[in-house]
Amino acid sequence: MMVRDYSCCRLMPEETRGGIHPYPELLYVLSGKVQITWRGVCYTASPRALVLLPSDTPHQVVALSKEADIWYAELDFGEDELFPGMENNITWNELQCSPESRPVLDPVFEMTLELVTEAICTEKISVSEYAKRLCLLDIQKLLLFIRAYLERDSAVLSFDRNEDGDTTVALMRFMESRYSQPITLKMLADFVHLNPSYLIRDFKKHTGSTPIQYLQMLRMNAAMCYLAATDMSINHVAEQCGYPSIHYFSQLFKKKFGVSPTDWRKKTKSAARTKR
To answer: Max alpha carbon distance in the chain (Å)?
Structure first.
């Protein structure tokens, strides 16, 4: 499997995108509203709609709003038949273009979709062969979730089954990939569709810490790495670790390690030189 072509683009009302090609395609609406004409049928797609376009089917995309942002990826599967069949494509696209009936899948699906979006829209997919392969694996995961939903595989779909900590794992992965960004308890609760109080109790049951404590651990571990291995300013380290205020970062760091970030860096680098 390979990505034949991809792009993140902004559509204006006078523009028409699309065509026909011998490769299946994923199309995701980031913002605005678009009309997708596929196989002669018109669909109205709003943000977070992920549309499947099988190979050799004509399609056109037009912005209905003042502007609309989308990304698409054309896929060459080779011998792999991972892309859903036509009937399932129709069912999925109808659901995606109807927000009130759009299915809520496992939080891992949402997180994976965000990772693919980031890889395509920030050009990470083209940085290296490893980045490209990681994105391909995430696309495969999306398609497997979609097929599981369409084929009603409840063992894969259900994220209410938290006996073995599936929701907790999803939250951990979410924070591990976004620790440098602003994250609130409400954001985490919305991500897994749980009440914040229940989320805290459940996460602590499986990990021994609250979600915010886990996030702080990730950020502090990242900070130690930056302080020990780079010459970044303390302010830059704070920003890279998700702290908008250097004073708040320094306060938390000193509370945890007993010294300021600057003193910790000096001691760590001095000890490293001594060992040499």
So the answer is: 73
Query: Would the CA dihedral through 179, 10, 149, 101 be positive or negative?
Result: positive
Tell me, which fold does domain 2-157 have in CATH?
Jelly Rolls (2.60.120)
> Domain spanning 164-276 has what CATH number?
1.10.10.60
- Look at residue 60 and give its three-state secondary structure: strand
Cβ atoms within 10 A of the Cβ of 101, count? 9
Q: What pLDDT does residue 132 have?
A: 87
Cα gap 90→208, rounded to integer Å: 45
Domain boundaries, the chain: 2-157, 164-276
Q: For 11-53, how does the pLDDT look when each residue is reduced to its tens digit (9 = 90+)?
A: 998 788 888 888 899 999 999 999 999 988 899 999 999 999 9
Note whether 88 and 147 are within 8 A (CB). yes
Give residue 209's pLDDT band: very low, low, confident or very high (50, 70, 90).
very high
